[in-house]
Amino acid sequence: REGSCGEGRGRRKGGGPNTMGIDLDKGGKIAKTCRTAPRSEDPYLLLLVKLYRFLARRTDSKFNSVVLKRLFMSRSNAMPISVSNIAKNMEGKDGKVAVIVGKVLDDERLLDVPKLTVCALKFADSARVRIEKAGGECITFDQLALRSPLGQNTVLLRGRKHAREVYKHFWGVAKKGHVKPYVRSKGRKFERARGRRASRGYKKSI
User: Of 14, 66, 127, 164, whose CB has the highest number of CB atoms within 10 Å?
Assistant: First the structure.
């Protein structure tokens, strides 16, 4: 009988006899997950994306491509960085611009802020005051594009991504053997290893 013996099984709806199916083993159903535009509707950010999309397309500079990709990032991936961290990374790099696609925060533990030229999306008020008081400069990305359209004399920095407390609970990210458990409470009866050692109530003899 025509169509017997499983002929045409698994065929996509509307396809002919020679229609190819999706090869699931090769990742045919997995779409690209990287962003191609920011989720934010901030008009200033969208103008910067437009600017750096042009620079990345019309120049061979990898700097512009990296900045464009970082402009798309979520806030949890574009972590802030402190003034002290910038100062540490800019030692011996006089005349260069520190570039951060994120926010710059103040650090009260740093007593003396060196003279820095910093380009960032946002600055904490106290961080801006301290940088400018030290004779430094806080510039925006459109000013940077005029000064260094190819990223010349720049140092691209970013904050520590795994600084958030939630990463202490993730196996493979937290220090080996120190993955923090999620517990109901921090009381006497919870996650205190009672019975394992004498300092925790009692030690059970085997």
Answer: 127
pLDDT in tens, 64-87: 999 999 999 999 999 999 999 999
Model pTM? 0.75
Residue of 145, 85, 149, 94 whose CA lies nearest to 117: 94
- Per residue in 128-165, pLDDT tens? 999 999 999 999 999 999 999 999 999 999 999 999 99
Q: Give DSSP secondary structure letters for the chain.
A: -TT-TTTTTTPPTT--TT-----GGGTTT----S-SS-S---HHHHHHHHHHHHHHHHS--HHHHHHHHHHT--TTTS--EEHHHHHHHTTT-TTPEEEEEEEEE--TT--SPPP-EEEEEEE-HHHHHHHHHTT-EEE-HHHHHHH-TT-TTEEEE---GGGSGGGGGSTTTSPTT-PPPP-S--STTSSS-TBEEGGGTEE---
Tell me how far apart the alpha carbons of residues 48 and 44 are, in angstroms, rounded to a whole number.
Answer: 6
pLDDT exceeds cutoff 50 at 1: no
Residue 106 and residue 116: Cα distance in Å, rounded?
14
Q: What angle do CA 21, 26, 32 make, to 5 degrees?
A: 100
**Which pair of structure tokens corresponds to residue 123?**
């600055």
